[in-house]
Amino acid sequence: MRAAVTAATALTATGLLAIGPGATAFAAEPTNPSGLSANAQPGAVPEMYKSGTGPKVRVNQVGYLTNGPKNATLTTGAETGLPWQLKDAKGKVVATGTTTPRGLDGASAHNVHSIDFSKYATPGKGYKLVVDGEASHPFAIGDNLYETLRQDALKFYYTQRSGIAVDDKLRPGYGRPAGHVSQDETGDLAVGCLNNGCDYKLNVKGGWYDAGDQGKYVVNGGISVFQLMNQFERSKTAKTADAKKMGDGTLAIPESRNKVPDILDEARWEQEFLLSMQVPDGKTNAGMAHHKIHDESWTGLPTLPHQDTKKRVLHPPSTAATLNLAATGAQAARVFAPYDKKFAEKNLVAAKKAWAAAKANPNMMASGDSGSGGGGYGDWNLADEFYWAAAELYLTTGDKEFADYIQNSSLHKDDIWNERGFSWDRVAALGRLDLATVPSNLPDRERIRESVVTGADKYLAALQKNPWGMPYSPSDNRYDWGSNSLILNNMVVMATAFDITGETKYRDGVLQGMDYILGRNVLNRSYVTGYGSSYSVNQHSRWYAHQLDKKLPPPPAGTIAGGPNGGNEDDLAKKQLAGCVGQFCYMDDIMAFASNELTINWNAPLSWVTAFVSDQKGSSAPKPAPAPADPAAQK
């Protein structure tokens, strides 16, 4: 997620070379005087946006777990309940009921009713809800509806990789040459500092491109790689987690079949980059981490990574980036220890060094406006980063220094569960969640676990009040940048409460949240590419730019869009969404980066939550998970 405005209107020529035998080749085309690629389609200059909202009956367009909750939302002018019918694929009525009026919804400016058909539990495809003569999009009922999405949400990261050619055999249609691997100033092999601010150059090859641009940012990479590693670590403690589903060979990446779980191989690609951003020993600010690396100025759309000719620069170190490295380094030391002890040790050394450097430089802030070419990612409150880093270091080492820091932090007992949820600049919850779930000897661990349940109760209450069934209700109905990720992160809290307590209501809350993401919203849209009848497919990206050049691919299946954003920060939204209300502040257009970008930190909670949902299989709740103090007690 980026808070800086992208120069989305600058358009350049593009070419894509697929890698691997039998791959499709995409040839470069010259630009024309208008600045558009010669292959650019009319979508490059979008017409007035129209939010075709489809059927009045909004459903989860993927479907519902057999024994899970099944809810839908109806937009209607009726003030009293209306009869509804559930029809199977043959048109046979299999269930009936009456809608529940919910009144005027401020987030959509619509009068809405709720529909609960949870009692129906017969698996099948092609179901439709019919109310007032109008049928919903089709959906399924079953136990294995999320297995493919579980993998696709993670496979997204391979095509976001920097510094490596994407093999078309592994991702048909998405093969491309490696980006930023040249030895000159346009590559990442020897990158100097902005304005010659340091006397060294770093090899920062690798990692994931952050979003629709070619920048790489430590704070956004930090929360993203955390959620991948946390998803894996959950499989060691959660009763319903299935570690085999994220094991070796599950993601079709170059490292598959190396006897390491693929999810960790993918996380390592980013973690290696984070390590490379640390200031070397003997240099000013040694141990700190550079905040980011990106081009000196914006590239246009479309521009594939290997076509980027802009100079690359390191931005100054920041305390926030350094603490992200301390946290993820400590976490990586823990999760990689059984597979690669040397890499685990390397991470722990870097984490401790970063912690010491951050303590010595506690107020080295990153500017939110640090020039063109990339997002700012400014953060002026670092208490949460210190808390998260201390938590991860304690869980890995057990050292008293970190235990004391945790318990002396005001965040350790504060109510950190606000309606906006956690994000790259609000990371106290990351520490709290790990302290609640990773076995340790922290004296007040049970209280920490109870605090997570309390947070889940808040989100569950918000969900129950919301006619769209999601744990997110901004008091002013002004949705945030990346609102879908905030919803998903709140669902992570509810899922963790389910893991802790075994109480079905938390699982059901997560399932209802997925309904919103996959179509139960005012726009009747699944925000995940490739899933549902009407889904987002034009997310802001410089290389998944099919809207601009039909020779280029759209975002891969399993890519989530940012979602409604009341800020309307991009020019297209300012013109076409002025005065929009709540959920209507979204458009599926490649130029609408404020609501329709893709990012690594938005797909991370999507992959986490879909893994959780996939693990449930619609079965009854398990017994509550124990709170082991001894790591040996992990399953």
UniProtKB/TrEMBL annotation:
Residues annotated as catalytic: H540, D588, E597
Domain Glycoside hydrolase family: 146-609
Classification via InterPro entries: 6-hairpin_glycosidase_sf, 6hp_glycosidase-like_sf, Cellulase_Ig-like, Glyco_hydro_9, Glyco_hydro_9_Asp/Glu_AS, Glyco_hydro_9_His_AS, Ig-like_fold, Ig_E-set
Catalytic reaction list: Endohydrolysis of (1->4)-beta-D-glucosidic linkages in cellulose, lichenin and cereal beta-D-glucans
Root EC class: hydrolase
Domain Cellulase Ig-like positions: 53-135
Pfam (any one): Glyco_hydro_9
Region (Disordered): 616-635
Molecular function, one GO term: cellulase activity
Biological processes, Gene Ontology terms: cellulose catabolic process
Assigned keywords, A-Z: Carbohydrate metabolism, Cellulose degradation, Glycosidase, Hydrolase, Polysaccharide degradation, Signal
Segment forming the signal sequence: 1-27
PROSITE patterns given in the database record: GH9_2 (PS00592), GH9_3 (PS00698)
EC numbers, comma separated: 3.2.1.4
Family under the similarity heading: Belongs to the glycosyl hydrolase 9 (cellulase E) family.
PANTHER family: ENDO-1,4-BETA-GLUCANASE
The protein, known as: Endoglucanase
Protein species of origin: Planosporangium mesophilum
